[in-house]
Amino acid sequence: xxxxxESKTVVLVVVGAAAGGGTVVFLALLWLVISxxxxxxxxxxxxxxxxxxGGAAFGLxxxxxxxxxxxxxxxxxxxxxxxxxxxxxxxxVMYLYLSIPRPSPKPLPSVDKRAFTSGASWGFDRVQTYTVxxxxxxxxxxxxxxxARYCQEGWQFEIRSDCWEFEEGIPCRFARCDIPRPxxxxxxxxxxxxxxxxxTRVVHTDSWED
Length: 210
What we know:
Layout: H1 2-35, H2 41-65, H3 70-99, E1 113-119, E2 123-132, H4 136-150, E3 158-163, E4 170-178, E5 186-194, E6 200-209
Antiparallel strand pairs: 1-2, 2-6, 3-4, 4-5, 5-6
């Protein structure tokens, strides 16, 4: 009797997972064809996984509540419902993850700060430019402390004779570091220009893949 119940449970889970996962994958493929977004196959994989999990869970619950011979029918219906529900939740969670970058080095506070965010096929760039009344060595020290806190190893400042971020022909100090972020890339760059002995121009860029 116990073996029979366990067998029924397995059948319901498999049927529900297949129904839910298949439904969600079909809807996702249909959406990809309509939207012409071939770059979203990773999202399709996550969506299908959500359908499998939701289908198995809902199929098991509804299938057990149904009497014979409605158990399999309940499993199919539950799989579809669970697959669609969970499959819709996954993209929302994924969108939130993509749109919010991991913490990165913080710029110095300043009254003269301008920021803008731009998007491209790769991801997003958030650029902040500002001038501080501090010598360049002191600004670099602040940046190094922040980068040591947030960045992976391997970064260092280098002196460049010609930097384009602010104005061509002006030397600068430049550093880039990668921010630990699972699955998708994220990095930070900072460019420092010495305007005088007491003033430094900063170009602070956060970039992350969507």
